[in-house]
Amino acid sequence: MKVLLSGIVGFSLFFSSVAYAGNFIEDLGDVISFKVLPVYSFAATVYNSDWNTWYDYDWNGLKQLIVVNLVKSTVTDTLKENISEQRPNKLGFDSFPSGHTANAFANAAFIHRRYGIRQAVVPYVLASFVGYSRVQSRWHYTHDVLAGAAVGFLSAWIFADKKQNVFIAADTESVAFRFSTVF
């Protein structure tokens, strides 16, 4: 049920935004970076929660996701303002690093770091497409995209940690201890 709900929300955001597409690859990269992957990473915190009780929601994961995105945005904006590299299409001097790619890789790397590589394969593929779309549409150079990917990846890798699944439960007749890990 949780996966179905997450998928419906993600695809509805995706299709409502692509309907106006002018440059399809560029617009698709925009939607993936700022709608699909943020919803996907939030949905990962929902999916990896134990919904038997309200307090088993992955609140730490949600807090870490917010911190990762704040750090990524701050670093990206600071670099853009101080480096002032002209874009390949000559429409501004804020080319380095790619904010779209930083956003995409921050969300993908958050899922990887927090919940494991198996849940992050699709987000990494989508994030790579975002980088491709930024170069193909001439908004960024390749080194802008690589720097954005590094900023996003490092933000997640430094400010998120692996979810520890340790549960202790007790009642009047027994005590239970359960441990699981994410690979």
Structure in words:
With 183 residues, the protein is mostly helical. It has one domain: Up-down Bundle (Vanadium-containing Chloroperoxidase, domain 1), CATH 1.20.144. Helix content is 66%, strand content 7%. The chain is built from 6 helices and 2 strands; from the N terminus they run ααααααββ. The chain has a two-stranded antiparallel sheet. The radius of gyration is 19 Å and the shape is elongated.
Q: Which CATH C-level class is it?
A: Mainly Alpha
Task: Give helix and strand order, one letter per element, not per position.
Answer: HHHHHHEE
Helix content: 55-70%
CATH fold naming: Vanadium-containing Chloroperoxidase, domain 1
CATH architecture: Up-down Bundle
- The domain tally reads 1
Share in β-strands:
5-15%
What shape does the CA trace take?
Answer: elongated
Task: Return the structural class.
Answer: mainly alpha
Low-confidence stretches: 179-183
Distance between the termini: 23 Å
Q: Number of helical segments? A: 6
Output mean pLDDT: 83
- Quaternary structure state of the chains depicted: single chain
- The value of Rg in angstroms is 19 Å
> Which sheet architecture does the biggest sheet show?
2 strands, antiparallel
Sequence of strands across the biggest β-sheet: 1-2
| SS elements, strand count | 2
